[in-house]
Design the sequence.
């Protein structure tokens, strides 16, 4: 029996579509009336756990799920000990530095030393500014990071940008891109090595089902 | 003020100890059975000793602040290698050593209250290279698992020397990146690192050189191997045949040439023993051959082969507990000796000692509080003591069996 950890939120639709294409139907998670966090596919060969995207690598690292789908941004932020197997190509966005459009800053190195940077991605932000040798104070936030510069709490933010619309609507501009991110198929390393219950076969099916984006 | 143990420390109560000893006694019996001798090294070790092999990171060592450059050992191999080459020189090889000790590791990556003290039991077979020493080590390991009645185990076997050699066509610094990606099973990095497509095919093939031994050996043999690599492959083949031919109950074998660490001191076979039950998959222990390590500790740099493995007692405990094989109670006293009145204590202690020395290895406890006969019987029943012995001041005894 194979267990897959699926992320709530933006990646869920595509994840469920992908698994359906290899014969594992977890679309019950998309039903608004569904409150179950663990469901079986119709053939009873696999189970899916519905968890917060941040928690996907946790379930996979501890082996409660052999497979998981999660954004590269979270893997980069949390550095979990999991196998990174397939770039699933969906959920494309980028990790960026943004500031108020009215500010004079047009690149990370323009930021004044020891300024504040708000982010949900504390480690990614730290890594970026350490790389520039620019000392900044990272303010951890859990959502609506854009409010950091708007309220004046921070000069900049480090956050995921998809279309850039949220930034625009809040009068922020993107000044640096840290990295591109997409959804990834990850696996519990030990389960991957042991390859029980046809795990490798499922991984190959997923790899084949992924449509490469030109 | 509430006095708590330090973060990551835990106390073992009598039942925990009984369960731990259940495991350790079985392992010890196996080690003795194979002619291994116990070595006890110091809990404190110099950092330069610990880190000489290149596999221990300083950040994982808990350092002692009163002593410069000294920390609590995170594993035993470095200590044993140091001790063996410097103090046991002149002993005819092979040396068969085992240990059963606590180790300390700083909790990693911000996991709250991560355990810092662990117990390990393992062996080091020093001064003996070759397939037969590899086979002995794996057979001792198999014997350990058998003695613990651990079924559904897998032995994931690799060869650090072969994998290192198969990585040699990659130029540096690409090689280091590829090795790290293979060690951490990061296929996406292998797919995206800039390199020629022939090199990429090779890297992807190396990451998935895993499965049934015969199958994997065949796939490796299909590569363009140099004589040294062919020798390693034929040694691996011989080892697997030897294990199969020995008739011993060995765990299911998975040959996995991607089984490497980012940093290690292994030169030959490497292995992990994994328990896979419906409760999950756990690494119970690991080991490998380290033919260069001992020379680092030798004053003249003399080369001496070595191989060993370690079993993690906590992981064994976790896997064994649900099987119901571990003791669920501490040892029960065989007799409760009760003085009939306060003046009878001398006689009671004397009689208890006679019982202890009777040669039946009885566990005898003396009732320390004056209580009613009914309360004494309740206490004995509660503690599952089958027999009460009443002793009067003149030393006369009366036995009473409890149902």
Sequence:
């Amino acid at each position: 029996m194979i267990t897959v950890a699926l992320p709530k939120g933006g990646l869920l639709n595509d994840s469920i579509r992908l698994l359906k294409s290899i014969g594992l139907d977890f679309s019950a998670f998309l039903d608004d009336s569904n409150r179950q966090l663990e469901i079986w596919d119709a053939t009873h060969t696999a189970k899916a756990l519905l968890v917060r995207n941040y928690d996907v690598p946790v379930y996979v690292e501890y082996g409660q799920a052999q497979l998981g789908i999660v954004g590269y941004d979270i893997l980069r932020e949390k550095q979990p000990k999991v196998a990174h197997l397939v770039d699933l190509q969906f959920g494309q966005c980028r990790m960026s530095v943004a500031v108020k459009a009215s500010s004079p800053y047009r690149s990370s190195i323009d930021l004044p030393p020891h300024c504040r940077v708000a982010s949900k991605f504390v480690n990614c932000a730290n890594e970026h500014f350490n790389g520039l040798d620019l000392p900044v104070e990272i303010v951890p936030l859990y959502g609506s990071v854009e409010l950091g510069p708007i309220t004046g709490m921070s000069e900049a933010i480090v956050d995921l940008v998809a279309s850039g619309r949220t930034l625009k609507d809040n009068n922020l501009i993107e000044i640096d891109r840290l990295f591109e991110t997409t959804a990834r198929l990850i696996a519990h390393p030990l389960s991957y090595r042991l390859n029980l219950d046809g795990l490798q076969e499922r991984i190959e099916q997923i790899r084949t089902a992924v449509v490469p984006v030109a | 003020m509430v006095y708590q143990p330090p973060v990551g420390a835990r106390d073992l109560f009598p039942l925990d100890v009984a369960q731990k000893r259940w495991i350790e006694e079985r392992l010890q019996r196996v080690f003795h059975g194979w002619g291994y001798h116990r070595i006890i090294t110091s809990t404190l070790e110099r950092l330069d000793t610990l880190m000489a092999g290149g596999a221990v990171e300083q950040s994982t060592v808990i350092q002692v602040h009163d002593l410069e450059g000294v920390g609590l050992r995170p594993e035993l191999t470095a200590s044993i290698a140091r001790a063996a080459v410097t103090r046991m020189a002149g002993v005819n090889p092979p040396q068969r050593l085992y240990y059963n000790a606590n180790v300390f590791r700083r909790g990693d990556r911000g996991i709250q209250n991560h355990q810092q003290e662990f117990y390990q039991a393992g062996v080091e077979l020093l001064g003996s290279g070759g397939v037969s020493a590899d086979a002995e080590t794996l057979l001792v390991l198999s014997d350990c698992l058998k003695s613990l009645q651990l079924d559904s185990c897998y032995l994931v076997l690799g060869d650090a020397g072969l994998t290192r050699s198969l990585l040699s066509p990659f130029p540096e610094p690409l090689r280091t990146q590829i090795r790290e990606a293979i060690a951490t099973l990061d296929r996406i990095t292998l797919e995206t690192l800039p390199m020629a497509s022939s090199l990429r095919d090779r890297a992807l093939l190396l990451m998935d050189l895993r499965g049934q031994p015969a199958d994997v050996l065949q796939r490796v043999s299909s590569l363009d191997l140099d004589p040294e690599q062919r020798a390693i492959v034929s040694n691996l083949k011989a080892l697997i045949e030897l294990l199969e031919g020995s008739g011993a109950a060995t765990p299911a074998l998975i040959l996995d040439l991607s089984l490497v660490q980012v940093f290690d001191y292994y030169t030959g076979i490497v292995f992990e023993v994994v328990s896979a039950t419906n409760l999950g998959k756990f690494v119970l222990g690991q080991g490998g051959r380290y033919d260069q390590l001992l020379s680092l500790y030798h004053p003249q740099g003399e080369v001496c082969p070595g191989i060993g493995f370690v079993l993690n007692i906590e992981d064994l405990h976790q896997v064994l507990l649900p099987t119901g094989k571990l003791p669920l109670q501490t040892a029960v006293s065989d007799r409760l000796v009760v003085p009939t009145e306060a003046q009878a204590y001398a006689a009671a202690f004397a009689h208890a000692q006679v019982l202890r020395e009777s040669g039946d290895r009885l566990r005898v406890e003396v009732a320390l509080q004056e209580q009613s006969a009914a309360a004494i019987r309740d206490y004995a029943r509660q503690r599952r003591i089958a027999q009460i012995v009443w002793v009067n001041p003149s030393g006369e005894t009366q036995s009473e069996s409890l149902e």
